[in-house]
Amino acid sequence: MTTPNGDRSDRSPWNWLLIVPIILPLLPFLYNSDEPRLFGFPLFYWLQLAFIAVGVTCTSIVYQMTKRR
Questions:
Q1: In the beta sheet, which residues pair with residue 38?
Q2: What is the pTM assigned to this prediction?
Q3: Percent helix, strand and coil across the chain, each rounded to 5?
Q4: What pLDDT was estimated at residue 8?
Q5: Contact (CB, 8 A) for 44 and 6
Q6: Whose CA is closest to 46, among 24, 27, 29, 31?
Q7: Per-residue DSSP letters for 25-68?
Q8: Which residues are paired to 60 by β-bridges?
Q9: DSSP β-bridge partners for residue 41
Q10: For the chain, how big is the Rg over CA atoms in Å?
């Protein structure tokens, strides 16, 4: 449903920040390596955990900047 007056809250430029956690894991040159290792884990595994942290951070920032006061 759309609002009658056309006042939409999803038109914030902050929403573009949500593209970062989508595009970042799609770049294979970032994790196409075995080294460096962190606590014995290859780059691919700990970088996947870093992608989760980036996604949570971006989502939290967008939420805080676009919530209604």
A1: 41
A2: 0.76
A3: 60, 5, 40
A4: 61
A5: no
A6: 31
A7: GG-GGGT--S-S-BTTB-HHHHHHHHHHHHHHHHHHHHHHHHS-
A8: none
A9: 38
A10: 17
* Cα distances (Å, whole numbers) of residue 49 to 21, 24, 31, 41: 12, 12, 12, 11
Tell me the residue length of the chain: 69
Contact indicator for 52, 20 with CB cutoff of 8 Å: no
Residue owning tokens 């980036």? 54
Instruction: Work out the number of other CB atoms within 10 angstroms of the CB of residue 18.
Output: 13
Residue type, position 11, single letter = R
C-beta separation of 14 from 59 below 8 A: no
pLDDT digits (tens, 9 = 90+) for 12-55: 899 999 999 999 999 999 888 888 888 888 888 889 999 999 99
Residues 43, 36 contacting (CB under 8 angstroms): yes
Residue 6 one-letter amino acid: G
* Tokens coding 52: 């989760």
